[in-house]
Backbone:
């Protein structure tokens, strides 16, 4: 595979514009869980929650080639992972521990196609 990455700042500018758009329209972002903790486009996908965090499985089009990808977000709005409290970090780790065995189950209904 040949991969060329331009380090001229064009990608960063596009990402900053994308982030600004999603910050202004979070209800439309397919990677932000709704009030029930489900990703907006596919509520049937794997979803686990605890009191501080929500895990939702990603659709393949958002997984960028990584099978079984998902997203964990805090219930409290945080701008970055550096804003997580120690309890939120622990809750995130707990969800990861719960998700892993589910994806390893044969014929799991939650497995990505």
Residues:
């Amino acid at each position: 595979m040949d991969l060329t990455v331009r380090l001229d700042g064009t990608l960063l500018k596009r990402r900053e514009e994308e982030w600004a758009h999603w910050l202004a329209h979070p209800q439309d972002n397919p990677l932000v869980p709704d009030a029930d903790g489900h990703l907006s486009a596919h509520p049937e996908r794997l979803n686990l929650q605890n009191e501080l965090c929500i895990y939702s499985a990603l659709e393949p089009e958002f997984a960028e080639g990584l099978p079984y990808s998902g997203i964990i977000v805090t219930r409290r709005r945080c701008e970055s992972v550096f804003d997580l409290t120690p309890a939120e970090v622990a809750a995130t780790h707990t969800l990861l521990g719960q998700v892993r065995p589910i994806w390893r189950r044969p014929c799991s209904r939650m497995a990505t196609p």
About this structure: The beta strands are 47-49, 53-57, 70-74. Confidence is low (pLDDT under 50) at residues 107-113.
